[in-house]
Amino acid sequence: MYDTIIIGAGMSGLAAGIRLAHYDQKVCIVERHYTIGGLNSFYRLNGRDYDVGLHAVTNFTAKGAKKGPLARILRQLRFKWEDFALAEQCGSRIAFPEVNLRFTNDLELLRSEVAAAFPDQVDAFDRLISRIDDYDDLDQDNFALSSREIVSSVISDPLLVEMIFCPLMWYGNAREHDMDWGQFCIMFRSVYMEGFARPFKGVRLILKNLVKRFRSLGGELKLRHGVKKICVDGQRAVAVLTDSGEEIVGKRILSSAGHIETLRLCEDVSEIDKRQIGQMSFIESISILNKQPAEIGCDETIVFYNDHEKFDWQRPVEGLCDPRTGVICSPNNYRYSDADGVLPDGVLRITTIADFERWSNLDEQEYARQKMVWFDRAIESAVRFVPDFRRYIIDTDMFTPTTIRRFTWHDNGAVYGAPDKKIDGTTHLENLFLCGTDQGFVGIIGSIMSGISMANMHCLRD
Amino acid sequence: MAPEEIRTAILEILEDIAPDEDLTALKDDVSFRDQMELDSMDFLDIVMELRKRYKVQIPEEEYGELASMDSTVNYLTPKMADISA
Question: Smallest CA–CA separation between A60 and chain B, in Å?
Answer without folding.
Answer: 16
